[in-house]
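Study this fold:
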Amino acid sequence: ASGNPNILKEIELRREIDELNADRIRWHKANAAVNDRAGYLARQIESLPGLIADIGKDADSILPKDEKNFFTVGGKSYEAKQREKALTDINDALKRLGENKSAKIGEYRGFDVVARKIYLGKYKISLQNNSVYELSDDIGLATSGFFTRLDNALNSVSKELNAKKALIPAYKKELGGLKGALKPWGRENELRMLNKRHDEIMLRLKEKE
């Protein structure tokens, strides 16, 4: 049997088949990644106009700072000179939050201020109107810089608007490139012929047994 050339041929064919199957698996994975990305881009292109409209409304609705009606907590309005008292009430509201629970803790310059307790006394703060604008970092309890951070978030709304507008042409360009990258594997016939030859060799080997 060791001198049977069909044995060596079967080993060679099996190696070629394994290599082609591995190549097909790589192609499937690459194509799946491209399809996933293309699907994501298509969904973003469809949803971005609505989001841009909401952010645009928010940019137009930002109120100037009001020394008399500076911050509202629990329906009670505080003047700017009462900000320390407002911070106390804000922190009381934060302490009442359960783990992973969210609640509106106040109003500032035309936006709801919403907090979510995330872990170990840390809170994620966001300003909400038509869309949501999270503060860049989590906080513990609110301190004197709390209102400055809210102002910074509001100041970034127009930047967010421009960034979202720029995404649409960028995503369309990328999507067009991905569509061109989606190509058939193209080696099906080669694999089919190898499998056929392998089956024939196996049949001959069984006949020799």
The chain has a mean pLDDT of 93. The chain has five helices and six strands.
